[in-house]
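$ ./design --mode recover --in tokens.txt
reading tokens...
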């Protein structure tokens, strides 16, 4: 017993882990600057198509100016950390859905007659496809995943771990063209134009391989969840009342009718407002953009800027009208109390988000990530490999780069001018180059603490933790490693098979030139 207590005390608290990461980052930045650590990457001039060298250097925070930056920017970075504000707003909507009873009834109706594996697969598939909504999907599906498994009489941590893995993978593989893909295509086309002036890539260039990848990854995540994660996690203790069989009453069906009818009207109005070309429609779009996906998600799009509020209002409508139907919400006092239900006891979560925002901000300021990515790009550009060895090198290089720079756009801005031309010289198409990049980055995106939404994953694991021990940062990464290894191996094999057979990637595009 004494040994067990001593072991528990020695485990590092997740908050202290972030403090340690901050200290290590600051110290490392000072050491790397003393060693004159730097790397060069080439960007393409939009007009002349010339390659212009850019030197990335490490910026030391182990100095007086660095300390000043930390003290003057930490609070403002936390206040502007979109993860925090969006999470609080969305939790209000989820609160009223949960407290009113809507979620429990909806989950019971849709999953009661399904096998556990089937429920997991469809939940994973929805998470993967939801990447069209961008990073907001993390804030929606991580808490909903916990409740889905909780009301299914299973450990909520399974839903949290599974949703995070699926959402991370979904950010790079999707049948539906996203705004991130649109940005990446611009860099890919520009890099390809250095060897083939005017090279263009269509939005359907990788549709076929992405479709296969979505189904493959969904099955793999389901397999890992049901055969590895479920066995790793401790048994979740439910009360006797929680274990009672859920029976949907007539009153609850009436509440569901109220909720779904109200939500349907709301969605019809909302959908009409994002359809261009109809009378009084398109009010939420940025009509200065060319492509529809950019009209939806550009910086100036009303849809993009207000999407969090749109989703929150949908959740509130569902919870409110269900509550009115079943009389769990009888007056405005009940409604207001329900709004804050999921926000109870989130003090520890706020502290974790604060430290995570500080760590991410400090790491970005040191520029270590960009230096590492630039160095990887130079290794790929100067390699003498061709064919399959080159493809594997690019895949592994991008996977490593993602650990230091999770942002797809920033990574591809640095890497595209190296990867695309060197692959084209090996007779590999730019479309396939971007596909390799997207597949590679999702294999490690779920294990880097530098991903802004990693802290949401860790915070919800801790929220539903029933044990005496805290969920450590290493624990949260350990749960994701089986997904990383199996998905990484599977996607690499998929790429190799596609390349060898020469199957079309999509419409009018192939792995080779």
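writing sequence...
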């Amino acid at each position: 017993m004494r040994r067990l207590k001593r072991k528990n005390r020695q485990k590092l608290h997740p908050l202290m882990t972030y403090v340690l990461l901050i200290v290590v980052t600051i110290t490392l930045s000072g050491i790397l600057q003393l060693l004159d650590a730097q790397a060069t990457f080439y960007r393409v001039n939009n007009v002349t198509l010339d390659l212009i060298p850019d030197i990335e250097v490490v910026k030391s925070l182990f100095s007086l100016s660095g300390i000043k930056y930390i003290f003057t920017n930490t609070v403002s970075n936390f206040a502007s950390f979109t993860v925090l504000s969006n999470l609080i707003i969305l939790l209000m909507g989820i609160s009223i859905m949960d407290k009113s009873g809507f979620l429990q009834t909806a989950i019971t109706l849709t999953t009661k007659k399904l096998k556990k594996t089937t429920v997991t697969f469809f939940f994973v598939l929805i998470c993967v496809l939801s990447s069209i909504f961008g990073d907001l999907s993390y804030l929606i599906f991580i808490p909903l995943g916990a409740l889905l498994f909780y009301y299914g009489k299973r450990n909520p941590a399974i839903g949290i771990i599974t949703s995070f893995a699926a959402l991370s993978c979904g950010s790079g593989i999707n049948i539906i063209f996203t705004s991130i893909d649109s940005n990446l295509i611009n860099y890919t086309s520009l890099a390809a134009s250095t060897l083939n002036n005017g090279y263009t890539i269509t939005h359907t260039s990788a549709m076929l391989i992405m479709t296969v990848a979505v189904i493959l990854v969904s099955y793999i995540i389901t397999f890992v969840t049901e055969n590895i994660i479920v066995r790793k996690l401790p048994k979740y203790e439910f009360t006797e009342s929680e274990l009672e069989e859920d029976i949907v009453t007539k009153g609850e069906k009436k509440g569901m009718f109220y909720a779904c009818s109200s939500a349907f009207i709301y969605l019809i109005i909302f959908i009409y407002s994002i359809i261009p070309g109809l009378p009084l429609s398109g009010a939420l779009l940025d009509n200065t953009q060319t492509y529809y996906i950019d009209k939806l998600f550009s910086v100036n799009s009303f849809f993009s800027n207000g999407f969090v509020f749109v989703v929150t209002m949908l959740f509130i409508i569902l919870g409110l009208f269900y509550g009115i139907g079943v009389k769990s919400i009888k007056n405005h006092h009940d409604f207001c109390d329900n709004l804050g239900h999921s926000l109870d006891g989130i003090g520890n979560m706020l502290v974790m988000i604060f430290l995570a925002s500080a760590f991410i901000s400090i790491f970005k300021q040191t520029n270590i990530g960009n230096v590492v990515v630039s160095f990887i790009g130079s290794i790929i550009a100067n390699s003498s490999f061709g064919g399959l060895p080159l493809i594997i090198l690019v895949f592994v290089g991008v996977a490593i780069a993602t650990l230091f720079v999770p942002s797809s756009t920033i990574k591809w801005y640095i890497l595209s001018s190296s990867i695309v031309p060197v692959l084209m010289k090996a007779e590999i198409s730019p479309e396939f180059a971007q596909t390799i990049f997207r597949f590679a980055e999702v294999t490690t995106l779920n294990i880097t603490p530098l991903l802004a939404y990693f802290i949401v994953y860790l915070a919800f694991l801790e929220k539903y933790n029933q044990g005496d021990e805290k969920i450590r940062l290493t624990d949260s990464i350990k749960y994701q490693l089986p997904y990383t290894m199996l998905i990484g191996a599977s996607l690499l094999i998929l790429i190799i098979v596609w390349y060898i057979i020469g199957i079309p990637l999509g419409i009018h595009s192939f792995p080779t030139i």
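exit 0
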